[in-house]
Amino acid sequence: MLAQERFEGWLDDDHFLMSQVEGTRELFVRVSLPGGQRSVWKDARMEKPYFSHPLHLGNGSMIQYQKQDLYLVMPDGSEQQLTQDSSEEKNARLAFDKKTIAYTKDHDLYVYDIKKNIERRLTYDGSETVYNGWASWVYYEEILGRSSNHAAFWWSPDSRKLAFLRFDDAAVPEFRLLRSSGQHGDMELMYYPKAGDTNPNVQFIIVDVETGSLTRIEEDSLKDQYSAFPFWTPDSKHLLFQELNRSQDTLHIVCADPNTGTRKIIYKETQNTWVDFIEEITFLNQNSFVFRSNRSGWYNLYSMDLEGALTHLTPVPWGVLEISEIDLGHQQIYFYATGPIATDRHFFSVGINGQNLRQITSEPGWHQVKPSPNKSYFHDLYSTLNKVETSQILDGKGKPIFIFDAVEEDINKLAGVTVESLSIKTEDGFTLPGFWVLPKGFDPRHKYPVVFTVYGGPDAGRVLNFYQNFSADFYANHDIISITMDNRGSGKFGKKGMDYMHRSLGKWEIDDLISAVKWLRTLPFIDSTQIGITGSSYGGYVTCMALTNGADFFTHGVSLYPVTDWRLYDNVYTERYMDLPKENPEGYQMGSAIEQAYKLKGKLLIIHGMMDDNVHMQNTMQLVSRLQDLGKDFEMMMYPGERHGWGGAKRSHLSRLTQNFWKKHFRVIEHANLRP
To answer: Do 195 and 591 touch, CB atoms closer than 8 A?
Structure first.
């Protein structure tokens, strides 16, 4: 994209800053609204708002890591070392008053008083299996998320207390990963509960950072459940957190007193299949908050007070994607949602009382919006699958009043690549969204192989209506049609579609893919003897199932670090959808690529990292063993020392490996990867 004019940011509610290219010179121009009058910005400088480092103290000073210790860096660049020991301080988090840092070290929780230059240890029982404020692996992977980096502690807004989770992995089964480097190799031990296994023991604790006193939240220690996602009320008088039972079909929001540990349940949600944790809660005041739930069948917004009074703010039959901002001054909530077309993303607002729901963006596509400070205007950047980005300013009613002058090149069109949206019907009434990329020089008189790129997991759709550059895409340059489509469980059909997958992972994903192949077979330019599929992780699992349960339709597959039997994957993710193995033996049997391996008749390449701590290479080894016992031919590549995805030289090797697989097995013509 060669932009002549580009939105850079809001100066105030009636003025924005844009960059403007004149020859080789870039100017910054101040634009007045609503008229669009322009003037060169008097500073002739651009000061973009940078993301603040979480340990920024103000006045130019900050806390940073150096050689596993914490340092105070002053505005003049001078440094003061705060911690000095052999143990690494992890996940340092600054209190709201910016006077104290919290972190974990050797599985215990510490704080550092910056003004007094004092470190205080808050817990004393951290060990190989006990972690204070450091998440056990399955919580890190499946509940708190990888972005947490295992951090499991949260400051109160008044900076006086920390809520943290204490984990005990003693009863969790061990799993060992083989590290093949060196003369004798090595084993990495991890505590990993697979489907049906014992979970870590988890407890919420509140600690007073000044006195060190601990308050344990009242919990039933005999309940097999998950506890997570605490949120402090703005006045620090209450801590909200969530409990999800082992079956993951009943969620409670609990309101606890941080001084006494007493608690009460203020919200209960039960579904016939599964309920997801509420990962974001935003407070409107000391007593009420907003959150997102699919209890209605679609992710919608709700508000609730601490007594449990619930208000449905967005009663619409489509998905709310995320809250963008809550404007308390104007009593408005701004959010992104799909609108009626599930592949779009639009910008909306609704009153905090649930009144006056309105859609601000109107053009089809995927929108990214930046409101002016007072919400009088909105910068809107959007595109579609086959339309490059448009940048514009909307007035308060969503009407375009300023269009940026930009040279937007349709790289796909220039390269001779065609991208088209698809709608694929299933026999039972679903219309599945998708798109295909037709290769350079596409000629409907010729026959083309096809490769599906898949993920396929519940609520994990990949078909989004925004522009993507496929000019350098391998398939587009090798006479291969590539297809991406979402199945019924992708989230595009709400919870109703997702619920099909309950207790039957591996069935509907393949059924919906088969519907697509049946449609492809009706097209004269499709070579039905060359129908490929590829994906990683869950997509690797779908690939294995397509080459076994879907062997009459799929002829070739590249499966990267796949789950091959759900009994081999972690319990939180697996049981959410499949229930416990003892409760659903038929589902686990039918959803196992190992058990379906006897059906393989196409060409399959399996790839795995030997140190994969998420989907253990055990999955691939057990599938390989079964295929060998069955006398089935296949291809395999292992990557020593690599985990669940990798970069560097081995990533380059992987790219060559997979591309050579398609070149070897498909009848392809290589096009020069040059733009005209």
So the answer is: no
